[in-house]
Amino acid sequence: QVQLVESGGGLAQPGDSLTLSCEVSGIYFPLWPVAWYRQAPGKQRELAASMLISGDTYYADSVKDRFTIFRDNNKNTVSLFTDSLKPEDTAVYYCNMGGSYPHQPGAYWGQGTQVTVSS
Question: Quick one: which of 47, 83, 48, 78 has its CA closest to 65?
């Protein structure tokens, strides 16, 4: 079956960087658009960044110029480099695949990885 497994979350201080990774198995990865969503406590899940199979990317205004999404089709991974982290970036980050980004998420989700930004 299709599996998406995230890693790389943790505790960071404001201004720090973290790289989140998502390994995909059970499907031919290069043909699928991918994205990272996040859900902060008490808030709705939101799209942070996405990448179409064309390579076109989308970033939410709140993360633009700080986050970078990239994929490695040889390793079946999609990653999110997060830079200049702020307390408001604290959230559970979810890998997603197969959506009509930025309008609609896909059917495949990872289990999430927690990112906490605090001094």
Answer: 83
Q: Are residues 38 and 61 in contact, defined by beta-carbon separation less than 8 angstroms?
A: no
pLDDT digits (tens, 9 = 90+) for 14-72: 999 999 999 999 999 999 999 999 999 999 999 999 999 999 999 999 999 999 999 99
The size of the chain, in residues, is 119
CB-count burial class (<10 Å; 0-12, 13-18, 19+) for 4: buried
pLDDT in tens, 17-28: 999 999 999 999
Question: Six-digit token pair at 39?
Answer: 């859900």
- Give the residue from 49, 20, 19 showing the smallest Cα distance to 35: 49
